[in-house]
Structures are given as C-alpha cells and as structure tokens.
Amino acid sequence: MRKTVHAACPHDCPDACGVLITVEDGRAVKVQGDPAHPVTRGFLCAKVAKYLDRVYSPDRVLYPMRRKKSFGKGPLDSETRHAASLHNQPAFERITWDVALDEISSRFRSIAAEFGPEAILPYSYGGTLGALGNASMDRRFFHRLGASQLDRTICSETGGQALLSVLGRKLGTEPEQFRHSKLIIAWGINVHGNNVHLWPFIEEARRDGARLVVIDPYRTRTARHADWYLPIHPGTDVALALGMMHVIIGEDLYDHDFVERHTLGFLQLREKVREYTPERVAAWTGIAAADIVKLARDYATVRPAAIRMGYGLQRCDTGGMNVRAITMLPCITGSWKEVGGGLQLTTSGGFATDEDALKRKDLMRQSPLGRDARIVNMSELASALNTLDDPPIKAMFVYNSNPAAIAPDHNQVIRGLMRPDLFTVVHEQFFTDTTDYADIVLPATTFFEHKDLQKAYGHYFIQVSNQAIDPLGECRSNVDVFTALAARMGFTEECFRDSVDDMIDATLAGAKDDRAPWLEGITRERLEREGHIRLNLPFHRGGEETRRAEKQFGSSAVPQFGSYFLPFANGFPTPSGKAELYSEDLAAKGLDPVATFTPPPESRHADAARRFPLEMLARKADNYLNSTFCNIGSVQPMEEDGLLEIAAADATPRSIAEGDRVRVFNDRGSITLTARVNGTVQAGMVAARLGWAKLAPEGQNINVLTSERLNDLGGGPTFYSCLVDVEKIS
Ligand SMILES: Nc1nc2c(c(=O)[nH]1)N[C@H]1C(S)=C(S)[C@@H](COP(=O)(O)OP(=O)(O)OC[C@H]3O[C@@H](n4cnc5c(=O)[nH]c(N)nc54)[C@H](O)[C@@H]3O)O[C@H]1N2
Ligand SMILES: Nc1nc2c(c(=O)[nH]1)N[C@H]1C(S)=C(S)[C@@H](COP(=O)(O)OP(=O)(O)OC[C@H]3O[C@@H](n4cnc5c(=O)[nH]c(N)nc54)[C@H](O)[C@@H]3O)O[C@H]1N2
Ligand code: SF4
Ligand SMILES: [Mo]
C-alpha cells in the first residue's frame, strides 16, 4: 500500500511549507516539498528534507516516563552520561498513560488547593505552529484550571506591536511579489537560513536587474550573496531608518500625495528626523555617512523597492523603535502602492481566525479563581521560578518548548528548574535539555502523526496538514494530552469533547461573523481536497491595483498581476485610518510617539562596555530551528557547533588564533567555545549559536550569557544585546 499525504510543516518558520509525505505500508518513506504550493515550489529546507531521520530517530520519547526516586533533577553526571545515550535514559522509568495522568492531575489538584491554581504555569512556544497544536485544547485546559497565563513574548511580540503601531494590521508584501522588485533590502533577516523560500523570488528579481542590500551586523550567507552589504552595530537600526528619512524628506524624495492622504504625524516625523544627520547616524551605526545618503536615495528612487525586515533587529532594547522606524519608510515613499514594493515583517494578520473559539478565555471565570489569572512573561522565566511569590510557581507544564535551552539567563533558569519543590511535566518528542529537569516526561507526536490546520507568517496560503502515519509508540498530540487531562480533572464543559475536526471547523467558521473575512468560503473539506488555499485577500483583478499594475508592467502582465495583494495601497486599518508616524498609544506608554534612538545599555555605546567590551550576538543556527534539530545525526554535519566567531582585531590583542579554545564570559555566566576568525563579524562584536547545553562538551548553552532584561515594547527579550569579554584558555 503506497499513498501520498499532503501535510504542512508546522515549525516556527515563516515559510510554512506544503509537504508531501509518501507512506508505504504505514511507514513514511519519503518527504518532499509540494511542487503545487506557490511559495514552497517543490523544495524543503535542508533540515526538514531529513525529517524521516527525526520521526524515526531511535532517540524519540515513545512512552510516558517518571523520574526515578534515586535520581535528582539535572543532567546525568558525566560517568552515567557516558554510559547512557539520548534514548537510554537511566534517570527515568516507563509508566502507563493512566499512571502519568493520575499523578499529574492529583499534583495539580493539591497544588491548586494549597496555593491556588496560579501556582501552576504552562510554558509553551513554537514547537508546532499548527493552529490546534499551538493553542487550542491546551489553552482551554489552563484557562479552566485558573493557571497563570503565559505572556508569549520570546520571539515576535515586540515587532508585532511596533508594526501595528504604524500599520494597524500585521500584513506585508507577499513573497511572490518580490520577483518584481528592483531594489530589495533584507534588513535584520537571514533569508538563506530562516526564510529560504523567499530566496528564489529574490533571485528572479536579480536576474531582472534588481539589487539586493543586506543590513545585518553578522555576515550571513545572505549577506555574502548581496550586491551591497552594510554591517551595522546591533540595536542601532532606528537611527539608520531615521537618518534615511532625514535624507528622503530633506531632499524632497517622498511621495507628497501618499503622505498627505494616508499618513498621520508627518510634521512630527519631519521635525524628529532633523537631528538624525548622516554624520550622527554614522557614529552610532558604524555605517559611513555617504553610504547612508546613498541608501536613502536608492531606496526612494529605485522603484519598486521592497523591504524584507526580520525579527533579528527587535531582539534588543531598541527593538520596538527599530521596527517602527523602518516600517515608516514605505509609508513616506508611497511604496505600498506598487506591486513589488512595500515591506514584509509578517503576514500573520491575514489569518485572523476565530481565536476565541479555540482558546476559550472565558473559561477562566469558571475556574476556582473566578477571574482572569495573573500573567507571567515567558522571557522572565528565571525570575518567575526563583522569585515570584503570591503564589510561587509550584508546577510547570512545558510543551512546544525547550526553555532549558532557549530562555535567557540560562544559569538562573536552571537554578529555578532544580528546585526540589517544583513539579515539572514536559511533553516532548525528544529528551531535551528541559526533560533533564522533568518529574514526568510525556511522549509527543510529530506532524507526521497528527492532523492540524496550518497558517503562515511569511505568505498567504492556509493549509490542512493531514496525518500520514500512526503515532509512534504511545505518542499523543498536544490536543489529545489536554483532552485526557481535562477529563482527569473532571472538567465537564462541552468544549473538552471537541475533536480536531470540530476545532478546525470552528476556527474557519469565524468567517461568518466578520472576524475572518478572508477565510470566507474556505472550509475544512476544501482544504482537505485542495491542500493549500490562498486567502480571499481583497484587491482582486479589476480593481484600482490592477489598473496600476497594468500601467506599471503593461497590459500583458495583468492576468498575473491582477490578483496581487497590496495591503496598504489605499489606506491603513489604524484607528485614524492612516499610517501612524505619530502614535498616541506609544505616548501613553511613555515612549517617543514618533521614534527615537537610545543606545542599548549593553552595547558599545554604553558604560558597561568598559568592563565587557564585546557585543555578542547569540544567534540561531542556519540548519537547526532554535534548539530543534540539533540532536539529529544527519543534520549535525551541516552545522559547526561550539564556535565563537570573532574579528581578527579583537582576537589578536587577546592572543587568540583560529581554533583556540576560549572562555566567553560576563557577570551572568561563562562558556567555553572554539574561536573562529572568519570575517563574519566586525571589530567589537562576537557571535555564537544556540544549541542544546547537554550536547556541548562542558554542558553549557549560549544563553548563560544573555540577560532577561526586557526591551522597549511588548516585554520582549534582548538576546542580541549582550556584552561579554573573551579570553584564551591556555
Ligand atoms: N534555519 C533556521 N530557520 C529559522 C529559525 C532557526 O533557528 N533556524 N528560527 C525561526 C524563528 S523562531 C524565527 S523568529 C525566525 C527568525 O528569523 P529572522 O527574522 O531572520 O531573525 P533572526 O535569525 O533572529 O535574526 C536575523 C538576523 O538579524 C541579525 N541581527 C541581530 N541583531 C540585529 C540588529 O540589531 N540589527 C540588524 N539589522 N540585524 C540584526 C542577525 O545577525 C541575523 O542574521 O526564523 C525562523 N526560521
Ligand atoms: N540565544 C538565543 N535564544 C533564543 C533565540 C535566539 O535567537 N538566540 N531565539 C528565540 C526565539 S525567536 C524563539 S521563537 C524561541 C524558541 O523557543 P522554543 O519554541 O522553545 O523552540 P525550540 O528550541 O525549537 O523548542 C521547541 C520544542 O518543542 C518540541 N515540539 C515540537 N513539536 C511538538 C509538539 O507537537 N508537541 C510538543 N509537546 N512538543 C513539540 C520540539 O521537540 C522542541 O524541543 O527561542 C528564543 N531563544
Ligand atoms: S522549516 Fe521552514 S523552510 Fe523548512 S520545511 Fe519547514 S516551513 Fe519549510
Ligand atoms: Mo522565533
């Protein structure tokens, strides 16, 4: 029996690829990108192309496990570790699902009785972005329980809020339009590593004469392929964007008509950018004044120009301001009107489904709390575990996340996870850094083994991901686990009996009441038949945009261009109906209502640089996905783990040569890495990559150095704003 199943990649990646899984006698034998998906275009990234090795890895968690009384929390000591392997976990014993669910529910009950349900903390993030696996039955369960709410700030909250403050909705240029751009700016995004399906569109544009500019403090693979690479000091992008607008406004290169009709606060912006002369901006950003002027002129005059902005530049103290200022650029040049213009940070606002129906926040009222539970910021996990009181956190349920690797201030996170009085459950596919601190580990399915609904944040196609194979061992999906736990806790509400299909239908049905107008007519049955469906975006063939495209590209192009989506060509869904270059909301939060540059407290511009003179980027690996994939044998050779990338100008005075073992340290921690003097970073900066602590020879993770200091907007983390020093280990 051979069949091909349509699925969708649920990993935390803008591309949300259509995936075809070939199954033979119940076993997946082949995985490939869906050639019919207009953005996937038949290929997968290198890591997911190896997905069979992940699904069928001997290291999978296959059964519920409980920590043995004789083993304390924490990684195995080095001797035991040597004898063990990732799939032979001597600290754990196998138990049945019944025993596991009984133990979890009885511990939750007794903790809730003694400390109140807010003493229980769910901790989840991007393991799966499937709509149900990410946020459905789990939210219902924790809302009904009255558990603390988790503020999921660790990735994109800052950028999202900043984007909304200007545009009013999280929409952006669709990837298919980049092929028509003449100038593309990849700004704080690693296209080759993190958004690889945009690359073929950029290549098409370049074959047609477009130029690619990359603005990134780290010389990524994308930067190496660029026509013009501008290394920038981390956390200074707001100054660069304001400096560009200084030139664009000063030289009268902006679109008067668009500004007049569609923006609010242009006068305040014009006043603000006066101070941002190219010379001052050059001193902050490290980019020459002449280059700033040229970039501004190019951006305003080479049309159409598209900006692909990444989340990299919002992982620092100035994150909100960075995103805000860059987002203003197409609003003053009027680039939103043009096919191949505009900007993309995310497209997620296109998928406004009925989230209430899935998450059921109202259930908190039925919990013993009888009100909304307190909110804990996931970026401050270390403090939450170590210092939160009233009540303290007594239990944590981790799923879709690996906080012992990905959370900032790792040493303090570990101190919290080691607390003997903390009851920790981890629902996982693998024995990660976090399972080392678990009391109970539950086995999780991969996307091959369950069904889900898949949205995207880098394009506008919605998909159903069908189940291709039976769950391995006793693995259960997130939905199944929380359904079972709800039954154990005696939650009798109807919604705890919903099936996966019920929830997909309810999500899509939001279309009926206006909350999801772009899902009108998109049903589960259609998705099952067609695999992917483009959202019903407005501005279809025949509209004003069609005529404009016709003028721009000639009438023969129109059958193709007629259905391109120009989200802000005719205005903005903000309260004022205009792009808000001046924001009352930000003013109310005590922030600069336009945008302003304040040097980050951990940067070369700050006093702290006297003690720790190097700015460190604790980056993602091109071939892992945050900490996912770094344990997969066939993926590991694509990355070099344990590197510290450093400029010769910083290595030489420290007597550090290529290949030397070095200690990287600050007040929060220290890690041993291998020096690589390869020209990827400029003087004054170093870079290292995220991975599992327990796979490193000395059991450390790069987040020992990062801090849980929050940034300027939305409570986001500051992973990329971190001062360190480096010394050679003799
Ligand atoms: N291969 C791979 N793909 C991934 C991921 C992965 O780990 N690996 N992670 C996924 C996730 S969770 C996300 S959120 C996305 C994120 O993908 P991106 O939006 O690309 O974000 P980052 O990789 O965090 O950062 C992008 C680039 O920003 C640069 N950068 C850092 N600080 C600054 C700054 O201050 N200014 C500027 N201009 N640039 C800066 C970094 O050097 C990096 O090259 O990728 C997703 N896709
Ligand atoms: N130093 C540094 N730290 C960072 C970043 C950085 O760039 N540098 N990036 C930050 C960013 S942008 C993000 S988004 C976060 C990411 O933080 P996380 O979302 O925690 O990311 P992962 O490390 O990929 O861990 C996800 C885990 O979920 C598991 N999983 C996958 N599917 C399922 C499922 O269906 N059910 C269950 N129960 N589990 C599943 C995977 O096996 C994996 O171990 O990390 C942040 N941390
Ligand atoms: S991780 Fe991203 S690029 Fe790779 S298959 Fe999944 S969606 Fe596509
Ligand atoms: Mo992320």
Structural class: alpha/beta
Task: Please mark out the parts with pLDDT under 50 across 5 or more consecutive residues, or reply none.
Answer: 556-561
The bound ligands are: ligand MGD, iron/sulfur cluster, molybdenum atom
Hey, roughly how much beta strand do the residues contain?
15-25%
Second-tier CATH architecture of the largest domain? 3-Layer(aba) Sandwich
Biggest sheet: strand arrangement: 5-4-17-16-15-6
- Give the averaged pLDDT, no decimals: 94
Number of helices: 26
Gap from first CA to last CA? 61 Å
Q: What is the CATH level 1 assignment of the largest domain?
A: Alpha Beta
Rg, please?
25 Å
Largest sheet: 6 strands, mixed
What is the number of beta strands? 27
Number of domains: 3
Question: CATH fold name of the largest domain, please?
Answer: Rossmann fold
Q: Helical percent range?
A: 25-40%
- Overall geometry: globular
